[in-house]
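Appendix B. Chain record.
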Amino acid sequence: MDNDAAVRDTTVRVLAEVAGLPLSDERAMLLAPQLEVWVTLANELSRKMSASHHSTLVPITIFAHRSGGGAR
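Structure tokens predicted for this chain:
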């Protein structure tokens, strides 16, 4: 989503429709301000993490599984 684009209740209704989620107009109006805050903060985090000094940063969590066995 564009940094300058405001999240409006129409945006929330379209996103809900695409996701197949039933959403009343009243709830869309209530959710729009919260979603706008989330998008703004997500974009800010994305910009920070895209900085060159973070290019070698890797997650600390390692996902592994046992080989040769089923669920126990």
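Further analysis of this model is presented in Appendix C.
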